[in-house]
């Protein structure tokens, strides 16, 4: 069993959701994660706030937030256990953020010690 | 209290007190000695009270006898040492120290024993066994009954656990303040398992099962009474136990068969225990730490209201979602899926249920049997039959058989 990170990419982080929408979205996300956890395949996860973000550039210049310059922004991630990238992708298919047009979930295998030596 | 009830009752309450104090006194190397002295004390009571009548203050009588037996043991051990090791003759005659059976020392000793017994070096099952023996005064037969095992196995298990405590030189004392949170976790796990052993045990003996619950609650109370261990998590565990215990009287019908939650007579639920649980849950909400016990206690609180409302099941589902993120267990996974079916309907819950991967678990098939009803009765029948085959107890098999019989044939 490997660990995979499912990374939530939002096309437009500036879209403001109403508190009601946020609550519905939160519940849907918790139901989605709960379903993975019920299979004993959830490891950990975090949501990322759009507010109060910084981007540190090559020349050490600091700007407020990734918006405007980068088209997609990260909304959060979870780490799951799965037999294969395909299984991890099958979890990702049910992720509620995919309800937003242009949003994607990126599935990446996490490097383990043994992968580093080859 | 009648004579024949008096000794068993005292045995339950006093054996563990005497054993804990003596253990504390002699050290972990002499657990058996402490148990033996406590046992002999009761033997003497059983031999003499029926003829002479019970003493006016039976507990005090037992304490005096136990103290004397301990003193005699010291004297004998001393003589023995002198005989076989003459070189020890020169050593000072140390008088046997006084055994302190005050209330304070009893509860201190029991609390310290609880930490010693729940030392991480011994396996959970053995921890529960030792706790039942030393802290709850259960006989080997009763422990074997509770674990659906035999006397020999339990004796072996306890023997190995005592050896381990000796080998690791586990001290009978409160852990250092810094070590308490971690050690307390192990203690809470044992108390939680002890309680569950009583609540969900497959043992047929209803009396023993209830006593397991009562004892788990008594030991949890011991933790709450000490400021060092009166933490939010302990309060949450106590709340959970109170909420579940409130249904104990409603869980059995006249013939001792299990009554399922939805068929229980609410008027039999113990309202004062529910109120007590709510107080503990309130106390548990101080601080920021969220333990699995907090989530389970809150779920149990929702269940103290039998009426099905969308709000109730919505909350229960969210609580199970969080519980599973903190800590996976097959029971939580099954209950979460049941809650999901209550919120989103059977058709939505079925694909998630199929993914749980618990095919050797009777409750998994019982859940699928439930969810398939009205959608695919053939599948429902198949899973109920699977559950019937996998289930280990007669009351469960009877409940499943009823469901199979009531399944509409299409």
Automatic annotation (TrEMBL), chain A:
InterPro entries: Dimeric_a/b-barrel, YCII. Gene3D superfamilies: Dimeric alpha+beta barrel. It comes from the Bacteria. Pfam families: YCII. SUPFAM superfamilies: Dimeric alpha+beta barrel (SSF54909). Residues 11-111 form the YCII-related domain. Belongs to the YciI family. This is Transcription initiation protein. It comes from Chitinophaga oryzae.
Automatic annotation (TrEMBL), chain B:
Residues 183-284 form the DUF6596 domain. It holds the Pfam family DUF6596. Residues 32-77 form the RNA polymerase sigma-70 region domain. One of its GO terms (biological process) is DNA-templated transcription initiation. One of its GO terms (molecular function) is DNA-binding transcription factor activity. InterPro entries: DUF6596, RNA_pol_sigma70_r2, RNA_pol_sigma_r2, RNA_pol_sigma_r3/r4-like. This is RNA polymerase subunit sigma. It comes from Chitinophaga oryzae.
